[in-house]
Specification:
Elements (H helix, E strand, L loop, with lengths): L1 H23 L2 E3 L14 H7 L3 E2 L3 E4 L9 E3 L1 H6 L15 E4 L4 E6 L11 E7 L2 H4 L11 H4 L1 H14 L3
Parallel strand pairs: 1-3, 2-7
Antiparallel strand pairs: 3-5, 4-6, 6-7
Helix pairs in contact: 1-6
The chain binds copper (II) ion.
């Protein structure tokens, strides 16, 4: 009886740990199966980004062939005109590349090869704080990624209640 409880509690803790892990770090493969290239239409990356929820700690995966594309983080003005001149970080030359989103805010990425950016190889994203901090009320943010990001926690809480009702 006692060891059963320990096993159940252990399983619950493991499940919570997995949920926490899943919550902490989502990999976003930029452009999905299309990867990072000159897109088939110039809204491809914006359409893709609009369907993602980016949180601090998540990872962007840029799938591209080294020497055919690169990834340059730039300020918005540079993004708008497709200029790599004011790059904010070291240009990522080697594909595929994994880029961790370390802070919240807006981020802009372009490819600096030829006219790739002008042809639509550019990405703008909004990164929100991780779910633990978005649980706190934040009056300034009008859009609410919290609804999505808190779901795993709610699921874990319900599972806990469910499992403990059997002990
Ligand atoms: Cu390119």
């Amino acid at each position: 009886m006692g060891s059963n409880k320990v096993a159940v509690i252990g399983a619950v803790l493991a499940m919570l740990a997995i949920l926490q892990l899943a919550e902490a770090q989502t990999q976003h493969v930029v452009g999905g199966s299309e990867g990072w290239k000159i897109p088939s239409n110039d809204s491809t990356y914006q359409d893709w980004a609009n369907n993602q929820n980016f949180s601090v700690g998540d990872i962007l995966v840029f799938n591209f062939v080294t020497n055919q594309h690169d990834v340059v983080e730039v300020p918005k003005d540079s993004y708008d005109i497709c200029s790599p001149e004011f790059a904010m970080n070291t240009t990522i030359m080697k594909g595929p590349a994994h880029l961790t989103l370390n802070s919240s805010g807006q981020f802009y990425y372009i490819c600096s090869f030829g006219t790739h950016c002008i042809q639509g190889q550019k990405l703008a994203i909004i990164v929100s704080n991780s779910s633990s901090s978005s649980l706190a009320p934040s009056p300034q943010s009008s859009w609410s990624p919290a609804v999505v990001t808190t779901t795993p926690t709610a699921a874990a809480a319900f599972s806990l209640i469910f499992i403990f009702s059997f002990i």
